[in-house]
Every structure is written in C-alpha cells, then in structure tokens.
Amino acid sequence: MFEVYATMSERMKLSDVAAHAQRAEAMGYDGLNVPEAVHDGLLIAQAALAATTRLKVATSVLVAFPRSPMSVAVATWDLQEMSGGRFELGLGTQVRGNIVKRYSTPWSAPAPRMREYVGSLRAIFACWQEGTPLEYVGDHYQFTRMQPFFNPGPLDCGPPQIFLGAVGPLMTALVGEVADGMVTHPTNTAPRYLREVVRPSIERGAARVGRDASKVRLMVGPPTATGRDADAVAAERERQREMLTFLFSTPSYWQSLDLFGLRDRGERLNQLTREGRWDDMVGTIDDAMLDTFVPAASYADAPDVLREWYDGLVGSLTFPMPADAGDDALVADCIRSLQGR
Predict the structure, then answer these.
(1) Are 42 and 12 in contact (CB under 8 A)?
(2) Of 14, 61, 211, 326, which has the highest C-beta tally within 10 A?
(3) Buried/exposed 287-304: b ≥16 CB within 10 Å, e otherwise
(4) 28 within a domain of the structure (yes/no)
(5) What is the DSSP letter of 51?
(6) Cα 286–Cα 168–Cα 196 angle in degrees, nearest 5
(7) d(C-alpha 127, C-alpha 290), whole Å
(8) Domains in the chain: how many in total?
(9) In this structure, how many other beta carbons lie within 10 angstroms of the beta carbon of residue 84?
(10) Would 51 be classed as within a structural domain?
C-alpha cells in the first residue's frame, strides 16, 4: 500500500495549476508534487492548495539557499494554516552553478548549510508553535529575534513536515539526521540502490542523533513509462531514455551508476556533452540499462510492476498524470490499486 502523488510539468503556467490540482484530487491521488524550475514553487503550492480540499501538496523541491529560512518559514506557515495541514515542505540545494550564477547567491558546502537551514526552520516553528524563545546561532544562520508583533502564533494542525531532496551520501545521511523524509531524484530510484545505498545512509544519519530511521519517509518518483497500450508505453520509455541520457551526463548523478557497474556510460555521456556531440548520446543507454532504472508497464499492469519494485521499501510514490484526460479513469484505477483499495 502506497501514498500516491500526482506529477505536473515544470512548465505549467500558474493559471493552469488550480485545474490540474482539482483533476488530481478527483482522480483519487493522495497528493501532488509541485516542482520549482520555471515557476515559483511556493506560488504553485498556494494555487494547488486553494483549489482543493483533500489533496496534500508538496514542493519537490524548493530551492533553499537563495531564500532566508525566515521567509520560507513565514510562507510555509501560511500555506499550512490555509490548507488545514495539507502542505509538505520539500527543500533542495541545487548545484553550485545555478546557486552562484542563476541566483547570485554565495555557495558553501551544501550538507552543513542545509543542516543549519532545517535547524533554523525547526527553531522558528518551535517559537511560533510552542512559545520557545528563538535562539538559533550557527555558522551560516542566526535567528535570535521574534517580537510578538511578528509571531503568527500556533497552528491547530501543527507545523509542516520537512523533506529533503538528496542524491549524494552526505545529504542522504542528513535526511536521517534532521528531516521527516527524503524526495528522490530520477537517477536514484532503482530498488537495489534504495535498499543498498539510500536506506543504510539514512540509518547512519539517524543513528548519529538517536532517531528512529524507520520513521523517515521515502517519497520516490521513479521515471515510470506507462500508458494505455504497448505503443504508448514504448513511446514514454524512449522519453525516459532521453531524460536519463541528459541526467547521467552529470557526474553528480553517477552514484547509482557505480552500484550497477555503469560508470563508463556516465563518463562517455559527459565526454560527448563536452564535445557537443548531442546526436551521439542516445545510444549510450541501451535497453538493459533502461530496464534498471525505468519501470515500464501499461496502466493495467503498472500497479503490479510498481509493487514488485517497491513493496516494503517506500511509503510514497509518484505516478504520472496522463497527458490525455481520456485516460483519467484508467489511471484512477491504478491509483486505487496502489493505495490498496
């Protein structure tokens, strides 16, 4: 049995988010993962929450470092209040090039900085919810002032949960140390990788602070290739091949390749990008490699395939919203099956 979250395009216009969220809720999804790439993740979350009554909405993931933890705390407190507790805050670090050149924000080692970022949020939340004096002093963030005028006061539903997007071992261990859950990346969703690398890393982080690692949720977004028939599945499978070809050209995502003895594919893709030989990249990921990372099945068979991959391993899955609304009833059946209903 899984919680099932809907997906949405990072290019979806803000004006279209409400209808998309309402459609996901009508189909029976438990939640909606909203991206931050082209549009602001907090604004997308607000539009989705305002348009629904039951659907949970998670930022997957909000770029943290260009934003002050206080600004994020204020916005997420409001989203949690207006939705009656349906908001989930997913945070990510992004890569150095984007932080420095796209956001004009100083860069520092991401894991220590994110530890303090989450610590700051927890301290602010405790101040507002429990009346604890605000006194957080770290190397990166210091929060020591909260006048009553600026304190929004406690929430009946309590503070939002905090998830971290994680890929490398330091950030994955940090999830176990400070977060309520982890949001996966498309490159680290293979069951063997989750079992042999991700879960042990979370357990190491949890052990450092005496936490119960079993309480840490895994929100897994596999690059699923699915559709109403074999042709639709095959077409989606090729789209996932193209996406993974791009992602695995980046060395930061090679940890899973190492586990499967496929680092040479990443090195080749990286070299081809450096040479600008884009047309030569696609053949690097063969069908056997694709089968390792991409669960593929029709809507009728997808629940069985995903259960085979993830039963007993994760609690939350994303399942793609169909491009064709004519497939909504078929996908609703998938969702019910994955939920165990």
Answers:
(1) no
(2) 61
(3) eebbebbbbbbbbeebbe
(4) yes
(5) T
(6) 70
(7) 48
(8) 1
(9) 13
(10) yes
Q: Digits of tens for pLDDT over the chain (341 positions)?
A: 899 999 999 999 999 999 999 999 999 999 999 999 999 999 999 999 999 999 999 999 999 999 999 999 999 999 999 999 999 999 999 989 999 999 999 999 999 999 999 999 999 999 999 999 999 999 999 999 999 999 999 999 999 999 999 999 999 999 999 999 999 999 999 999 999 999 999 999 999 999 999 999 999 999 999 999 999 999 999 999 999 999 999 998 999 999 999 999 999 999 999 999 988 898 899 999 999 999 999 999 999 999 999 999 999 999 999 999 999 999 999 999 999 98
Give bridge partners of residue 318 from the DSSP assignment: 5
- 137 by Cβ neighbours in 10 Å (0-12 / 13-18 / 19+) ranks as exposed
Structure tokens at 6: 């809907």
Q: Is the model's pTM score more than 0.85? A: yes
Question: CA nearest 63: which of 28, 31, 100?
Answer: 100
- Which strand (E) or helix (H) includes residue 125? helix 110-130
Backbone phi and psi for residue 317, each to the nearest 5 degrees, phi listed first: -130, 150
Where in the sequence is the domain holding 119, given as residue range(s)?
Answer: 3-226+297-339
Q: What CA–CA distance (Å, rounded) separates 202 from 213?
A: 7
**SS3 of residue 227 by DSSP:** strand
Query: Can you give the CATH number for the domain in which 166 is found?
Result: 3.20.20.30
Q: Determine, yes or no, domain membership for 52.
A: yes
Residue 248 is assigned to a structural domain of this protein:
no
